[in-house]
Amino acid sequence: MGWFSRAQAAATSVRGVNYATSPLLASKTPYGRSQLVLVVMGLMFGGLLARAVYVQLINPGFFQTESLRRTTKEYNAYGLRGDIKDRHGDLLARSRKAPNLVVRPAEFLREEEQFLARNTITSATKPEHAEIIRGRIAARQKRLDRLLALVNMNEADFRRAMASLRPPHTQVVLATKMGEAATVEALGLRFEGIDQDVKFDRTYPESRAVSHVLGWTDPADKGVDGVEKLFDKLLAGSSVKQQAQQDRLGRIVGDQGENPDPKEGEDLTLTLDALLQAVAYRRLEQAVLDSQAKSGSVVVLDAGSGEVLALSNYPSFDPAAPGRSSAWARTNRALTDAYEPGSTMKPFIVALAIEKGLAHPDQVLDTSAFRVHDRLISDHDHAKPSLTVAQVVQKSSNPGTVRLALKLDDQEMYDTLANLGFGRKPDLGLGGVVPGGGLGASGGRLMNWKRWRGADKATMSYGYSISVSVLQLARAYTALAGNGTLLPLSLVKGQPGGEPVRVFTEATARTMREMLRGTVSPEGTAAKAQPVGYTAAGKTGTAQKLVGGRYSSSSHAAWFAGFSPATQPRVVVAVLIDEPKGAYYGGLVAAPVFKDVVEQALRRLGEPPDMEIKPTALMAQADPLRKDRR
Predict the structure, then answer these.
(1) Is the pLDDT of residue 23 over 50?
(2) Dihedral angle, C-alpha 121, 122, 125, 130, nearest 10 °
(3) What are the backbone angles phi and psi of residue 257, rounded to the nearest 5°?
(4) Between residues 31 and 591, which one has the greater pLDDT?
(5) Looking at residue 208, what DSSP letter applies?
(6) How many CB atoms lie under 10 A from the CB of residue 476?
(7) Which of 53, 191, 541, 549 could form a disulfide with 343 if both were Cys (CB 3.0 to 4.6 A apart)?
(8) Which candidate, 414, 272, 416, 401, places its Cα nearest to that of 344?
(9) What is the pLDDT of residue 260?
């Protein structure tokens, strides 16, 4: 039997009394007894009058203080967390109050017991009073039913939830993320022990597309990972103690004095472009799923400033519910994971050889297979006995690249790779929030030249014995896309990470751009990287991965890194598809992602086309089997 049923049963058990025929009530009251009643009533009224005079005139302060103490409630008021926006002011993250509705069983049950004690019907209860009591009981049950409807519970579950509470806990959550209107209505039902536990709901309009950069917050709106954590002090609102007056039913009826206002968190503007971020994520997702790959990453940089325009990984996660995804899915692999970059490393070796006067684009090199210590340096199906330096880049020749590398001074080669940012964590311009770049960025692996042994120098020249992150590789290509200087990165608008570093002369960078255009052509290894309407330049890479200490013939990292337009680069893009199945070459699985992302990025930037490509030319792609095997 429920609470209301028990109360109703008690109410209906009253036996009616006929006051008109009752001998006791019909008898006349003696005169002396009536005088006694008048005297007693006079004394009572006099006592009440004396008490009122004492309270109002003799000692009002004590009772005013006691009244305030009983009706003043102190609570925390919270300022909302600041917004995170993209470079155009579009919303990436915003908070709203989403309180939990809770019950403190001790208070609720004590008030319920007191209510029943005041509203018990006995045989002595007059019928009209019994009817009033039954009305009170029904009204309370109606309020309780409404409360349970708001939290989507039945009464049995509600009472089981209260009974399940164990020390040291004092309250039970009835509903999470209640809307403001529902919360106000629930509190207005005037039940003791029903209260709100202030929580916050952080919304992310771009969701999975940008989650690895933004990170997420906990229910208290505190940053847990990503930018949310790094800039938590800036974004977080402050909390202050406020006081309010309550009536005896717990309803707030007014402020208590002057309350300080909580401080709202500051907004944060990133360099990201929300639209481009979404495009990059969707295209990356498609590539990973189509190739049945393990994962993928893409980074898009502004070729003139080093600002990060997009940074995406797949798989991803919902930042509003991070606990539903694995820790691996929440990893920002474009920053944290380092891979051997394969042939994407070759342009830097060729550029250094040109810089030192050891090569020029038309110089013919011996590209036949040869040994360096115990390592056979060879090409596969596109092997030729000789190629020009420009063709070495276009065809991605291992022997040609290694022969140039062996002409270089060991320390100069090492210093050049170090100046390109390899071997140390990239600085994302996070204002010194986290030394070493923040966001868990990896520095990869660049072995000091003094430790090189055997074929280390040779294999490093074509992207083995060195590991880099996708972000590091994208940044390194800014030195080729621009005037030979490595650009500082920035993720927060107006906060560049350091100063530009001169790596190559402007003439060398210009020469490399021309040679890398040959890669993105029907004769090169990256014909599928050619954007519609724009010139492009870049390099494919396909590296075998170490599995159990040995290079696997079935596990690869497929790369493409480049920039567009090739004439005056606006964007630099690096793409990694990790462990694709089937056609695993960089020219087949990574290059098409570059193409699609570049097209959208340049249109978004308002860049006019710099070349005309006929539809027939787009169809006349080179034979896919001729793509890069390195």
Answers:
(1) no
(2) 20
(3) 75, -160
(4) 591
(5) G
(6) 26
(7) 541
(8) 401
(9) 75
Domains delineated in the chain = 75-269 (3.90.1310.10), 274-626 (3.40.710.10)
8 Å CB contact between 461 and 328: no
Contact 587, 560 (CB under 8 A): yes
328: left (phi over 0), alpha (psi -120 to 50) or beta: alpha
Residue 421 contacts residue 442 (beta carbons within 8 Å): no
Q: Taking a C-beta distance cutoff of 8 angstroms, is the pair 252, 73 a contact?
A: yes
Q: Is the dihedral of CA 354, 359, 364, 365 positive or negative?
A: negative
- What is the 8-class DSSP label of residue 468? B
Please state the three-class secondary structure of 511-547 as a single string: HHHHHHHCCCCCCCCCHHHCCCCCCCEEEEEEEEEEE
Q: How far apart are CA 570 and CA 534, in angstroms?
A: 11
| Residue 373, token pair as written in the block | 């210590």
User: Is the Cβ–Cβ distance between 226 and 215 less than 8 Å?
Assistant: yes
Which DSSP state fits 160? H
Reduced 3-state DSSP string for 43-88 = HHHHHHHHHHHHHHHHCHHHHHHHHHHHHEEEEEEECCCCCEECCC
Phi, psi of 14 (to 5 degrees): -75, 135
Q: In this structure, are residues 14 and 123 in contact, taking their beta carbons and an 8 Å threshold?
A: yes
CA distance 254 to 243: 9
Active site residue 343: yes
Q: What is residue 371's predicted lDDT score, i.e. its pLDDT?
A: 96
pLDDT digits (tens, 9 = 90+) for 297-307: 999 999 999 99
CA dist 345 to 126, 233, 541, 601, 608, Å?
A: 97, 40, 8, 24, 30
Report whether 390 contacts 512 (CB < 8 A): no
Closest CA to 452 of 442, 444, 460: 460
Q: What is the pLDDT of residues 541-559, one digit of tens each?
A: 999 999 998 999 999 999 9
Tokens of 8: 């109703």
Q: C-alpha 24: how far from its chain's center?
A: 80
Location of structure tokens 């030195």: 479
Alpha carbons 33 and 304: distance in angstroms, whole number: 106
- Whole-prediction pTM value? 0.77
Amino acid at 198: V
Sign of the C-alpha dihedral, residues 602, 603, 605, 606? positive
Return d(Cα 510, Cα 473) in angstroms, integer: 19
DSSP 352: H
DSSP designation for 165: -
Distance (Å, rounded) from C-alpha 488 to C-alpha 430? 12
In b/e form, how buried is each residue of 325-350, taking b as 16+ CB within 10 angstroms? beeebbbbbbbbbbbbbbbbbbbbbb
Q: What percent of the chain has pLDDT over 90?
A: 66
**Could you tell me what percent of the chain has a pLDDT over 70?**
80
Cβ atoms of residues 245 and 71 within 8 Å: yes
Instruction: Classify residue 554 by its DSSP letter.
Output: E
From 211, 297, 343, 564, active-site residue: 343
Please confirm whether the linkage preceding 260 is cis (ω < 30° from 0).
no
Residue whose pair of structure tokens reads 């290059």 in the numeric block: 591
In terms of C-beta density within 10 A (0-12 exposed, 13-18 middle, 19 or more buried), how is residue 254 classed?
A: exposed
Q: With 0-12 CB in 10 A as exposed, 13-18 as middle and 19+ as buried, what is 64? A: exposed
